[in-house]
Amino acid sequence: MIEIPISPLELDPLTRSYWGQWDPLSIGQLAPLAKDRCYKPKFYKAPASDSELILAFGYTTYGLRITPGSIIFGFYLPALVSTSAPPAFNVQITDTNLKVGDEPYTFWDEPIPSFFLGNYKPTYLTADPLQAAGLVASFPNLLTAPHPVVGDGLFRLQFWDTTGGTNGPQGSAQRLELVIGVLEVVECQ
């Protein structure tokens, strides 16, 4: 029997094929992997929990190792209830294994605001005591094309605070948390 691959992402009522949006096209690329036993979803958080507070106008860099052979499909960045936008910071991700000429491959030409990684398609609301204003969980911001993890799987993530401490939990720092959605390669059964 022939089975048409349907991604569980297509069941999200807020994800539809609208002109100018690439979510449906990305979902079409990921759909065949939905039932593939060689991949399982895994989430990587950056920076680490002990490094997620950043000072006003501060900078931090974080190294991350993702299992080689995996596929990065998108980012999860929760929005603040009060603003419907993610916390304000700039980010750059560098794949140290891929090269463009002699330079390592960066995801963007220059660091981008976190707003471009948020995807305000609410799936639930929480009154998290660590976030005074609460958080809204959302559908991932999908990459236009899945990014393969090659070589030793090392990535460098750089973060810059852009709020000047106005939104941080201590008044001079804010909590950064970027979750990377990955389909991790596993031993096929």
Structural write-up:
There is one protein chain. This protein is mainly beta. It has a single domain, classed as Jelly Rolls (Sandwich), CATH 2.60.120. Helices cover 4% and strands 42% of the residues. Strands 3, 6, 7, 8 and 12 form a five-stranded antiparallel β-sheet that branches. The longest helix is centred in the first third of the chain and has 8 residues. The two termini are 21 Å apart. The mean pLDDT is 77.
Which terms would index this structure?
189 residues, mainly beta, Jelly Rolls, five-stranded antiparallel β-sheet, four-stranded antiparallel β-sheet, 14 strands
* SS summary, helix count: 1
Number of DSSP E strands: 14
CATH architecture annotation name: Sandwich
- The helix/strand class is mainly beta
Topology:
Layout: H1 23-30, E1 39-46, E2 53-55, E3 59-65, E4 71-76, E5 79-80, E6 89-100, E7 103-106, E8 112-113, E9 122-126, E10 135-138, E11 141-148, E12 154-161, E13 173-175, E14 178-185
Antiparallel strand pairs: 1-14, 2-13, 3-12, 4-11, 4-14, 5-10, 6-7, 6-8, 6-12, 9-10
